[in-house]
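Dear all,

This email documents one entry for the complex benchmark we are building for the journal club exercise. For each entry we list the sequence lines for every component of the assembly. Then comes the predicted three-dimensional structure of the complex as a token string, followed by one or two observations. Please use this as the template for your own entries, and keep the labels exactly as they appear.
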Amino acid sequence: MIRDTNGLVDSEQGLVSRRVFIEPDIYEQELEQIFARCWLFLCHDSQIPLPGDFFSTWMGEDPVLVVRDSGGTVHAFLNVCRHRGNRLCRADHGNAASFTCAYHGWTYTNDGRLSGVPYLKEAYHNELDRNQWGLVPVAQLDQYKGLWFATFDAQAPPLRDYLGEMAWYLDTFFDRRDGGIEFIGGTHKWIMPCNWKFPAENFAGDGYHVHWSHLSAVQTGSGGDFRTRPDDAGRAMSPGNGHSVMFAGPEMPADMPDPAVLAYEERIKPELQRRLGPRIALGKPVAGTVFPNLSILRPTSRTLRVWHPRGPDKTECWAFVYVDKAAPPEVKKAIRLAGARVFGPGGTFEQDDMDNWQGCTETGRGIVARRYPLSYQMGLGRETFDPERGAVTSDYRYSEANHRGFYRRWAELMAASSWADLAT
Ligand code: FES
Ligand SMILES: [Fe+2]
């Protein structure tokens, strides 16, 4: 039974009901209609390079185990024992030929087969068909440039179609040099008392807050100073399917203020232009969100993060630092340190953001405050499709056009009964 979501999002007028950020039944519907349906990011290839390597993550509130089996094939399963549903693998990552449940000892091989059941002969009289009780796989699993994604919906379009034009923008972050990128420095994980959509929309297109929320962090030298300078060539862009990117003008320094990083960026410019083509001359993609909950950022630190939903008013952030694999060690080190200082859980920028998102979520508990919609009207009606960029593009660097695209997609998915329904 699909709940009518009409009236919660009016992307033509730039209005979004506060109910979508706080009400439990809307959240439950999101888990079903968005998180159990869209392609969601799992991990990067560099986190599971060897046979037997695994990485534990989440798709919505479902625990998922990504594992490269002993033959080298990557799988993703519900990280759930089929017997009584205990969480199977408790480790964050590691290497294993098999996984044994802590409760009664059922054992699964790293390709998902149920291989061991204690007292199979005596207690089950060999009547349990182990072929029926292997781990539950995701419906589709695929990777783009080393980024592994999965969906629980067999009807979802192929990953490459789901990404659409956003794929090129991902290349500008992850495919700048031969060998692509790698994740370094582990995973930062923390829980924030806010709805998952506030951080997702922030990275999607909120250049507007940087010169205000983060001014003290900018002034103390954390980077992002390009946002406090005039940049007439900056744009907000929606390449389709709810994905979005923020673009700084070509003349803007959109990197962390570290001499090693700046010199490196200067040095690789010709290679970058060769690999990415003429569009890169229009400007620098600095941040974005792959719908629904994967966000990326480049200038202050190279962070990629997943906003795992944990209830209407709780989000678990998982943040990773990515670097060009071919970058020299001093550049990788500078980027890793900036990742912790600026966008770690105690980072100079991160603290400002978390506090704001918490405030935006908490006031929605008020039954009266909830009656008043939120304003997403900046630059309303001034965005146009730019064929050169392959994206709906704003007319100024600050605009809420990307937010409107994000919530339009959200509303479409919340109302659609299937992917086929969405296409029509
Ligand atoms: S719950 Fe896993 S073996 Fe019983
Ligand atoms: Fe911010």
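Observations: The two ends are 20 Å apart (CA to CA). Residues 11 and 173 are 29 Å apart (CA to CA).
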